[in-house]
Automatic annotation (TrEMBL):
Superkingdom of this protein's organism: Bacteria
Source organism of the structure: Streptomyces mimosae
Ranges that cross the membrane: 30-49, 56-73, 79-105
Name assigned to this protein: Integral membrane protein
Entries under InterPro entries matching the protein: DUF6113
Amino acid sequence: MRIAGHLGLGVLGFVAGVAGSLVQGGWFPLGVLLALGGCAGLFWGGALLTRTRVGAAAPAGGWLLSVLALTVTRPQGDFVYAAGAGSYVYLLGGMTVAVVCATLAPTERPLFALDQRTAR
């Protein structure tokens, strides 16, 4: 069950990477903020949901795979990322958000902690 959850988070990360890649170039500068906010929400949500660092790393890995696949220039000359500030902010910002979420993942405490005095 845990592996399926991490695979699902990886697929969501891949989809978020494709969507963020399209949005960041369309509505500069708000598109970059929207795309990074969506990535941060997904990475942090994965960490909270699974209570592991892998929960943040799985969607980050899917995001990275989609971003790397979209940076390749096709033989026809088509590409998704223009050589501009917005593209670089999205790529570097997404990597930074992934590392921060994986580092600060709340692994020690449970999601819903009950006070022992009120649980009786």
